[in-house]
Amino acid sequence: MWVLDYNLSVAVAVGFIALAGVAAETGVVMLIYLDHAWEAARAQCRAANRLPGAADLYAAVMEGAVERVRPR
Questions:
Q1: What pTM was estimated for this model as a whole?
Q2: Residue 53 and residue 38: Cα distance in Å, rounded?
Q3: How far apart are CA 19 and CA 72, in angstroms?
């Protein structure tokens, strides 16, 4: 706002608050998808009787992100 020389009004402040709320909501939803994918990966590792590793974490993050972007 300062660089573009815009005035800070009440409407702009409310818009920033709303934008922060939408960003927080999106982040929480993303964390839910990632947590679900990580739990599924851990369950697969338990079924295979091994400890989860970095590759399992990476696969879970990719799976959770894909499901968040493209829900079923």
A1: 0.73
A2: 11
A3: 27
